[in-house]
From TrEMBL:
<feature type="transmembrane region" description="Helical">
    <location>
        <begin position="42"/>
        <end position="58"/>
    </location>
</feature>
<feature type="transmembrane region" description="Helical">
    <location>
        <begin position="157"/>
        <end position="177"/>
    </location>
</feature>
<keyword id="KW-0812">Transmembrane</keyword>
<keyword id="KW-1003">Cell membrane</keyword>
<protein>
    <submittedName>
        <fullName>Branched-chain amino acid transport system permease protein</fullName>
    </submittedName>
</protein>
<dbReference type="InterPro" id="IPR001851">
    <property type="entry name" value="ABC_transp_permease"/>
</dbReference>
<feature type="transmembrane region" description="Helical">
    <location>
        <begin position="367"/>
        <end position="392"/>
    </location>
</feature>
<dbReference type="Pfam" id="PF02653">
    <property type="entry name" value="BPD_transp_2"/>
</dbReference>
<feature type="transmembrane region" description="Helical">
    <location>
        <begin position="329"/>
        <end position="347"/>
    </location>
</feature>
<feature type="transmembrane region" description="Helical">
    <location>
        <begin position="412"/>
        <end position="435"/>
    </location>
</feature>
<comment type="similarity">
    <text>Belongs to the binding-protein-dependent transport system permease family. LivHM subfamily.</text>
</comment>
<dbReference type="InterPro" id="IPR052157">
    <property type="entry name" value="BCAA_transport_permease"/>
</dbReference>
<dbReference type="GO" id="GO:0015190">
    <property type="term" value="F:L-leucine transmembrane transporter activity"/>
</dbReference>
<keyword id="KW-0472">Membrane</keyword>
<dbReference type="GO" id="GO:1903806">
    <property type="term" value="P:L-isoleucine import across plasma membrane"/>
</dbReference>
<feature type="transmembrane region" description="Helical">
    <location>
        <begin position="96"/>
        <end position="113"/>
    </location>
</feature>
<keyword id="KW-0029">Amino-acid transport</keyword>
Length: 438
């Protein structure tokens, strides 16, 4: 009997991990009818985000108060990846045949794996990330100051030309100066910011002048100057972060397993309860699932944004006519799934004591299996499906005799369950959330 309860605890721990990832699949599917097969890599990015936060600020420390900051770092990495994925790869394919975004998701999955494998130990790529971030910050500030509609489907690039020219000019000045001399005094840095803002403003004004006849919106010089100045300042901040923090650390190679930080209280000596061993990290994982599930239920059912998500999942066209910003709702769906995946990534690292760039592939497939098992599109079904799948794996490992049992066969039985569910109950245990869209 002790062995049964031990496997039950192991299964619930594993199932909690699957459930955290599976919710991301089912939330996105419920909104845009897309199976995001790159979601497993969002989970992997979250684990590496937590490790990066630890190496940057707390290397060698084990205090429990470090964990919330690591989780925040994981969430920022995962959400940033998921939102960029949606904006760059999925949004242009929203009205394409369903096979196109599916193949795109597989391509993104492979890209993210290889990117982490090749570049994690070489942080120079972050300079390009900071440069693009500076462009984005400048454009955002300029657009807010302009208070203009810049998303017209016909003239949007002409409307945006002035702001784009401003931010590109400002960042280009910083890049050129850094190529000439990478060690600048504080006075020179201030001078470069001023020159970048002036040059960016001039380029933005000229760009707006060139496209004036084709643009629907005229961008005032104040907005152009604000965009250029913000981009110049953001470029400086990015360089300082790279020079003072990122380049000062010897980063481990992601081509092999990387030890994950062990944190007081949530890791360490396991508890023994009536002959059943319960790891501290298992308690953290199950508690994280319970808290996240409760907060997600509250968000979906008790907030305006959550009700907007329900409306879009039922009929996006009618929701748009009712004044709901469908694009924003879809971004929120991707971000919500990424938050839970990031927490799952931290949990995985704490349980296994290491992470690697391949960790998201199989975990993503298992989470997809859990989502289908519970009912794809059903948030609560994803939680139930994850827990059931984890328990089934644990029990199969213990109780299936002969050459078809043991831990080496647990993945086989997980996908056998997937096949059986698809054949005999394709709607899942709790029923897939199917909406008849007119």
């Amino acid at each position: 009997m002790d062995q049964f309860f031990q496997q039950l605890v192991n299964g619930l721990t594993l199932g909690s991990l699957y459930a955290l990832i599976a919710v991301g699949y089912t939330v996105v599917y419920g909104i845009v009818q897309l199976i995001n097969f790159a979601h497993g890599e969002v989970f992997m990015i979250g684990a590496f985000g937590a490790l990066t936060t630890y190496l940057l600020f707390f290397d060698g420390k084990t205090s429990v108060w470090i964990l919330p900051i690591m989780i925040i770092g994981a969430i920022l990495a995962s959400v940033g990846t998921a939102v960029a994925m949606e904006r760059i790869a999925y949004r242009p394919l929203r009205n394409a045949p369903r096979l196109a975004p599916l193949i795109t998701a597989i391509g993104i999955s492979v890209f993210l794996q290889e990117f982490v494998r090749l570049f994690y130990e070489r942080p120079g790529w972050t300079l390009f990330a900071f440069a693009f971030a500076a462009l984005g910050v400048g454009y955002y500030v300029g657009a807010r100051v302009a208070k203009a509609e810049l998303n017209h489907p016909v003239s949007k690039w002409y409307d945006r030309a002035a702001l784009i020219g401003a931010v590109v000019g400002a960042v280009a000045v910083w890049v050129v100066v850094r190529q000439v001399d990478s060690d600048l005094t504080a006075v020179m840095v201030a001078l470069v910011i001023v020159v970048g803002a002036v040059v960016g403003t001039a380029i933005g004004w000229l760009a707006g002048l060139v496209v004036r006849r084709r643009a629907r919106t005229e961008i005032k010089i104040q907005a152009i100057a604000a965009a250029a100045a913000a981009a110049a300042v953001a470029a400086v901040v990015g360089w300082v972060l790279f020079e003072k923090l990122i380049s000062s650390i010897t980063w481990p190679s992601a081509k092999q397993r990387i030890p994950f930080p062990q944190i007081d209280v949530v890791t360490g000596t396991a508890f023994d309860v009536g002959g059943v061993t319960i790891q501290r990290s298992a308690i953290f994982t199950m508690a994280a699932l319970a808290i996240c599930a409760a907060l997600l239920w509250f968000f979906i059912n008790r907030t305006r944004l959550g009700r907007g998500m329900q409306a879009v999942s039922q009929d996006p066209d009618t929701a748009r006519l009712m004044g709901i910003n469908v694009d924003r709702i879809i971004v929120v769906a991707f971000a919500l799934g990424a938050v839970l995946a990031a927490i799952a990534g931290v949990s995985q690292g704490l349980q296994n004591n290491n992470i690697d760039f391949r960790m998201g592939f199989l975990a993503g497939l298992k989470a997809f299996t859990a989502a289908v098992l519970g009912g794809i599109g059903n948030v609560y079904g994803a939680v139930v499906g994850g827990l059931v799948l984890g328990v089934i794996e644990a029990m199969a490992t213990q109780y299936i005799p002969g050459q078809f049992g043991g831990s080496t066969w647990k993945d086989v039985w997980a996908f056998v369950i997937l096949i059986l569910v698809l054949v005999f109950r394709p709607q899942g245990l709790l029923g897939a959330r199917v909406v008849d869209r007119a």
